[in-house]
Amino acid sequence: LWFFGILWCKEIIEILFGIYCNCILFSHCECFIKQSFLNFIEQVDNGNIDSQHFWDLMDALPIEAIPQIESVLLQRVLSLYNISTDTLFFDTTNFFTYIATTNTRCTIAKRGKNKQHRQDLRQVGLALVVSREDFIPLFHLTYQGNFNDITVFKSVVDQIKTRMDELHLDVQRHSIVFDRGNNSKQNLGLVNTAGLHYVGALSPSHHSALVNDAMSAMTVPVEVNKEEFITFRDKRKIWDEERTVVIYISDKLKEGQVRGLYQELGKVQSNLKELQLKLKVLSGWHYPKTIAEAKEKVCAVLHSATAQQVFTFAIIEGDQGGWDLTYTRDEEKVDELQEEMGLRIIMTDRHEWDTAATIRAYHGQATIENAFRNLKNPYHLAVRPQYHWTDQKIAVHFFICVLGFLIAALVYKVVVNQTKFAGNMDTLLDMLNNVRLATLLEESVTPGPAKTTHKLEVLDIHHQAFIDALGLQEFHENRVVFSGHSVYN
Fold first, then answer.
1. Integer Cα distance of 42 and 480 in angstroms
2. Pairwise CA distance, residues 462 & 331, whole Å
3. Is 475 helix (H, G, I), strand (E, B) or coil?
4. Torsion angle of alpha carbons 419, 424, 429, 430, nearest 10°?
5. Are 210 and 340 in contact (CB under 8 A)?
6. In the chain, which end has fewer C-beta atoms inside a 10 angstrom radius, N or C?
7. How many whole angstroms separate alpha carbon 334 and alpha carbon 338?
8. CB of 142 closer than 8 Å to CB of 398
């Protein structure tokens, strides 16, 4: 697909070549060249493509130029394609690396809370802003792996506003959606100062009074995307500003939280039972000599707030030595915890929006999750593995990957619009990978080299529809000519 995307988006690629981005064609070096038909387009000699070639091209792109390049490219994209940008989604993720701890040449890869549970490795963060439809990436930032979401969001609010101005997006008509991990009083102040409209989320555990009010008054049914929610809506002063809040229960979220609750309580109960037997033994495993030490061991098992609410215990000295532990599980408390599960609290300054529109905007956050899922797909558009260990090359690598995702998203948009394709991007990439160009050699009756012709292999009805939609049926006969670049020799 990479090359179908590149060939189809000719105007975009000419911009890339004109502003230091020759390296996009060589991001997988010799292996990539041999498995594509780049040498058919540009007559590239595979023998000239080596790792040094790759480093040279990446060194030609300074980090400071990346935002400007991205902005120019996106201005061109928005002028060529009908992309709905009224709602923008912001989120972050991280990618672990195998950069050694002793490597001092890299400052961007740091240890932090890794979303793939690899806290033992250094990681690099990626922040994205994508459009509501077609998940077009309109902004990205590569940042240090030890930054939390609140810190990152605080640092990019002004940059997002600048990008919107560069793309001539009217801030009065656009809203940015972000999850509760980015929330703080200071961050919302920055959003207000930038003049951005927003839809965000709040943590139910931090707004117990609001939750209590909602639980007794959540009666209004609202249908969103053929799913019905019982909702509560009000205006509340939160962090010194009046905001519209919408509270509802997500059945899908509640199902997962209830499942997690029972898994946690089951594990705690199993650990308590094991500890109960150990406390009767008078030796080994740092046996507690006092009742205080025995209680410390029980408290270590009941370390979570949920476990402390559900379980109560007592310890007395046994008749024959050791300690007798008894515990109870409060099932009424378990039921009470379940009742409050699945709660979503959404806040917005779009007071004029109805409840359904507010919920629908927040549900669109799944759009950016799909973007991250594609960037972590090991078969297509993957950011990992990245074989770089300097800040400049890591930033360029992430930029190239985001551009790859942009081109794939544009190809996907056109295919879906023109063929009514119902699959996801990953399926489309797999199907396009099956389209092959054959080279035919005809024996010459006169001295000289054999005559060479090129022809697409026979396509089924679906692949033919894709090729027609992308205008590639006769590409091999009328090759695209890229301006503003030359082949590296």
1. 9
2. 56
3. coil
4. -100
5. no
6. C
7. 6
8. yes
- With CA atoms as reference, report the closest residue to 153 among 123, 128, 117: 128
* Amino acid letter, residue 202: L
In 364-424, which residue ranges form alpha helices assigned H by DSSP?
A: 366-375, 391-419
Closest CA to 3 of 432, 330, 323, 289: 432
The tokens for 380 are 């297509």
For 368, the token pair is 């950016």
pTM, two decimals, is 0.80
Over range 51-74, report the average pLDDT.
Answer: 87
> In the prediction, which pLDDT does 485 show?
60
Give residue-wise pLDDT tens across range 402-412.
998 999 999 99
Of 405, 407, 426, 425, residue with least CA distance to 416: 425
Q: How far is CA 248 from the centre of its chain?
A: 25
Q: Whole-angstrom Cα distance, residue 433 to residue 374?
A: 16
Q: What's the pLDDT band for 162 if we cut at 50, 70, 90?
A: very high
Q: How far apart are CA 178 and CA 286, in angstroms?
A: 48
Q: Which amino acid type is present at position 112?
A: G
**Alpha helices in 280-390, H assignment, sequence order:** 291-301, 305-310, 331-339, 355-363, 366-375
d(CA 283, CA 406): 64
